[in-house]
Design a protein that fits this description.
This protein is of the alpha+beta class. The protein contains 4 helices and 8 strands; from the N terminus they run H-E-H-E-E-E-E-H-E-E-E-H.
C-alpha cells in the first residue's frame, strides 16, 4: 500500500492551518527535521511567527525576501580565510553551511518585521484581509409596500 507524504506542504505553508491540521490528524503525518531547524507558531488570530535557528550567522549573512505568496530566507557565511587559517578546529558540531528555506504564504499574509536575537531569526507575519473581502452581516428588514415620495407620487396618482 502506498502512502502520500504531505509533510513538505505542511511545514512550508502559513495561514492554511485549519486545512492542514485536518489532513495531518486524518493521516497521522509527522514533519521531518531539516536544516536549519525552525518553528511556526500562531501568536494571535491573524498573526504568525517563524523562528529559525541560525546559530553562527549574523544579520549580514542572512537575507529575507518575499515575492507574491512566497517567503524565502537565505543564509550564507562570508568567507573569512584569514580567520580560518589561524584556527584549528578539532570538532565542528555547529553547522555553518549555506541554506535556503522557502515558505508558501496564504493570500493576504504579509511580513510585518524580522529580528535576530540569541541565534534565532524571528519573522513576524500578519494576515490582513481587505475590507471588501471580510464577511459582513446583512440586516433583514420587513417587507412591505413601497412608499413613493415627491413628484413620483403625483405622477403615479394621475
Amino acid at each position: 500500500m502506498r502512502t502520500l507524504d504531505l509533510s513538505p506542504l505542511y511545514r512550508s505553508t502559513i495561514g492554511f492551518d485549519r486545512l492542514l491540521d485536518l489532513v495531518d490528524r486524518a493521516a497521522g503525518f509527522e514533519a521531518a527535521p531539516s536544516y536549519p531547524p525552525y518553528n511556526i507558531e500562531r501568536t494571535a488570530e491573524d498573526a504568525y511567527r517563524i523562528t529559525i535557528a541560525v546559530a553562527g550567522f549574523s544579520d549580514k549573512d542572512l537575507s529575507i525576501e518575499t515575492r507574491e505568496n512566497s517567503l524565502m530566507v537565505r543564509g550564507a557565511k562570508e568567507s573569512r580565510e584569514s580567520d580560518e587559517s589561524q584556527r584549528e578546529v578539532l570538532y565542528q558540531g555547529i553547522a555553518a553551511r549555506a541554506f535556503e528555506r522557502r515558505f508558501q504564504l496564504a493570500d493576504h499574509v504579509y511580513v510585518k518585521g524580522a529580528s535576530l536575537e540569541n541565534g534565532l531569526l524571528h519573522i513576524d507575519l500578519v494576515r490582513e484581509v481587505p475590507e471588501a473581502q471580510k464577511p459582513r452581516q446583512i440586516p433583514i428588514g420587513k417587507t412591505g409596500p413601497k412608499v413613493v415620495e415627491g413628484d413620483k407620487a403625483e405622477k403615479a396618482a394621475a
